């Protein structure tokens, strides 16, 4: 992958008793140069994360971004991201990257929701592609990919992950920036 290839990493942050989660999109090149930021929010426990990420992508207006990396599929307390819908609207490969082994979210969703709220989340969750393990150095991440095959997804994640980091740089930077923005928002709201 070329050093200047850009990926948009999206990660989130929300504090205790928060009603909204801060999403940050960080454009980072494969050579680790940070090249832009955008922010959006979604409702904690809501169903608007996919739309918020789409809005964030559109706000950036960056035609040079080649891949969209999202930290997991359940930000903001199970505000599930529909990777297929995101891929359709942004027109580039969309990869969800998570960092821990898991049996899945179905049991957790069933504990937290019921009725239509549960059914909607289960439908979205079950429609997502399976997670595939990807080794990055001495670490392992788990990737869901829409818009590219598993081999390409693994190459993209590896190309954007510094040796010894275990986390793709676009997601690491986005997470740090989301936390800082969330802290600032809470300070001003207090």
TrEMBL record:
UniProt-listed InterPro entries: Endo_dU
Family: Belongs to the UPF0215 family.
Name the record gives this protein: UPF0215 protein ACFQJ9_18070
Source organism superkingdom: Archaea
Protein species of origin: Halospeciosus flavus
Gene3D superfamilies reported for this sequence: archaeoglobus fulgidus dsm 4304 superfamily (3.30.2170.10)
Pfam families reported in the protein's UniProt record: Endo_dU (PF01949)
């Amino acid at each position: 992958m070329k050093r200047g290839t850009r990926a948009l990493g999206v990660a989130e942050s929300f504090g205790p008793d928060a009603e909204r989660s801060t999403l940050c999109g960080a454009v980072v090149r494969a050579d680790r140069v940070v090249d832009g930021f955008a922010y959006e929010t979604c409702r904690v426990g809501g169903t608007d994360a996919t739309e918020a990420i789409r809005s964030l992508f559109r706000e950036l207006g960056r035609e040079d971004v080649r891949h969209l990396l999202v930290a997991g599929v359940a930000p903001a307390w199970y505000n599930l991201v529909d990777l297929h819908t995101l891929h359709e609207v942004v027109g580039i490969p969309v990869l969800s990257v998570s960092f821990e082994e898991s049996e899945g979210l179905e049991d957790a969703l069933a504990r937290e929701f019921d009725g239509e709220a549960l059914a909607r989340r289960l439908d979205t969750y079950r429609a997502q592609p399976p997670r595939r393990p990807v080794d990055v150095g001495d670490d392992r991440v788990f990737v869901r990919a829409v818009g590219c095959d598993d081999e390409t997804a693994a190459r993209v994640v590896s190309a954007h992950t510094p040796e010894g980091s275990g986390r793709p740089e676009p997601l690491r930077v986005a997470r740090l920036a989301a936390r800082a923005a969330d802290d600032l928002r809470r300070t001003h709201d207090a």
